[in-house]
C-alpha cells in the first residue's frame, strides 16, 4: 500500500529499459518502494537496469513483455499480480519512429501506432482489471504533448499518443470510485536516448524532471500532469491557433 506521501511499496514498469521509467523507479526506491517489476523484452539492457535498481536496495524482478504481442499480455502481466499486490503500474513503453521514413513505409507507421496505442490499450486494460480486483493502486500513463495537436513534423507519433491519451482519460473515468487512480503524464521534449540527434524543442525536460513530477502527482492524486508545468498554458493556446496559421508555425 502507499504511504501518506503517495509512495508505493511495489512498482511495475512496463517498458523496463525506459529512461523515464527507471528514473521514476530510482526516485520511488529512495522514498519507500521496495519491490520493482521491470517488464520488457529480454536483453542485456533489461538485466543491467534490474541490477542498477538492486544496487539501491530494491527487490527487482524482470518479466518478458512485448507491446506488440498483445495475446500474451493477460497471462504475463496477470501473473505478476498473483505474486503480490502492485501499488503502481507505470506505462512507459513507446517508440518515436522516423516520420520521414514512416510516411513512405506504411508497415513501419503501423508499427508505431500498434506499439504506442494498441499495445497500451491491451496492457492498460489488463493492469487496470488487476488493480481493480485488488481494490487499490495507481496506473500512470506516459502520454506526450505531441498528442495535443497533430504537427506536420511528427503526426504519426503524435496521433498514436493522442489515442493513448484519450484512452487513458476514459479509463480513469471508468475506474473512478473503484480505489484505482489513473494519472496521465504529458511531457514535452525529453532529453533522452530516444530523442538523441533531434533538434531540441522549447521547454525541454529530462527523465529525472518527469520522475519528480510523477512523484508529486502521486502525492496530490492528480489526474493530469504536464512536464514542465508551463506547457499546460502553452498547449491551451496552441490548440486554438487557426489551422492556416498553425501550418506556418515552426513547431
From TrEMBL:
Enzyme class: oxidoreductase
Pfam families to which the protein is assigned, alphabetical: adh_short
Annotated EC: 1.1.1.333
Protein's UniProt name: Decaprenylphospho-beta-D-erythro-pentofuranosid-2-ulose 2-reductase
NCBIfam families reported for this sequence: PRK07904.1
Organism: Streptomyces flavochromogenes
Lineage, top ranks: Bacteria, Bacillati, Actinomycetota, Actinomycetes, Kitasatosporales
Keywords for the protein's UniProt record, in alphabetical order: Oxidoreductase
Top-rank lineage group of the source organism: Bacteria
GO molecular function (one): oxidoreductase activity
UniProt record similarity statement: Belongs to the short-chain dehydrogenases/reductases (SDR) family.
InterPro entries given in the database record: NAD(P)-bd_dom_sf, Sc_DH/Rdtase_CS, SDR_fam
